[in-house]
Amino acid sequence: MSYSEKLIDHYQHPKNVGTLDKSKTNVGTGLVGAPECGDVMRLQIEVDEATGLISDAKFKTFGCGSAIASSSLATEWLKGKTVDQALAIDNMDIVEELNLPPVKIHCSVLAEDAIKAAINDYRVKNGMPELELEGKKH
Ligand code: FES
């Protein structure tokens, strides 16, 4: 199996590894696990309340290289987006950008799930109703 250079780069030099203060009301935290492999991803967003834009995003992934690369890429994409734009990030965008092989598609689903879970946490903290998320097939 050959991996793309972008994937290897995100895996070897992941961007935005870390933790945001989840006690802050403008920080949303998503923690999700992949049933097929037990890998776990935590992804956080910080929303600038003045502009409504995501000003920071961090992740910690205990999982495979593709999951690490997917979450690294996702945090890069999240910064500067509105929460609604962030909701539109689809795992297949990640698959395409990193050229993930079919057996690694669920790793990108994990990243999409983590984004959505972080957004939901942010929404609930700010008095908005939780979004009904249709579970994607891993
Ligand atoms: Fe399961 Fe990558 S092998 S997240």
From TrEMBL:
Entry's InterPro entries? Answer: ISCU, NIF_FeS_clus_asmbl_NifU_N
Q: Which CDD domains match?
A: IscU_like
The Gene Ontology terms for molecular function here are:
iron ion binding; iron-sulfur cluster binding
Q: Does the keyword Metal-binding apply?
A: yes
- Pfam families the UniProt entry points to: NifU_N
Look up the record and give one Gene Ontology term from the biological process aspect.
Answer: iron-sulfur cluster assembly
Keyword Metal-binding found: yes
What keywords are annotated for this sequence in UniProt?
A: Iron, Iron-sulfur, Metal-binding
Ranges where the NIF system FeS cluster assembly NifU N-terminal domain occurs: 3-126
* Task of the protein: A scaffold on which IscS assembles Fe-S clusters. It is likely that Fe-S cluster coordination is flexible as the role of this complex is to build and then hand off Fe-S clusters.
Q: Which family does it belong to?
A: Belongs to the NifU family.
Q: Which PANTHER family match?
A: IRON-SULFUR CLUSTER ASSEMBLY ENZYME NIFU HOMOLOG
Entry protein name:
Iron-sulfur cluster assembly scaffold protein IscU
Source organism: Taibaiella soli
